[in-house]
Amino acid sequence: MSKFKVVHYINQFFGQIGGEDMADFPAEKREGHVGPGLAFAQNFGDEAEITATIICGDSWFNENLEEATKTVLSMIKEEKPDLFIAGPAFNAGRYGVACATIADLVQRELGIPALTGMYEENPGADMFREKVYIIATGDSAAGMRKAVPAMAKLALKLVKGEPVGASAEDGYLPNGIRKNFFEKKRGSTRAVEMLMKKLSDKPFTTEYPMPSFDRVPPQPAIKDITKANIAIVTSGGIVPKGNPDRIESSSASRYGGYNIEGVDDLTAETYETAHGGYDPVYANQDADRVVPVDVLRLYEKEGKIGKLNDWFYSTVGNGTSVANSKRFAIEIAEKLLSQGVDAVILTST
Question: How many CB atoms lie under 10 A from the CB of residue 267?
Answer without folding.
Answer: 14
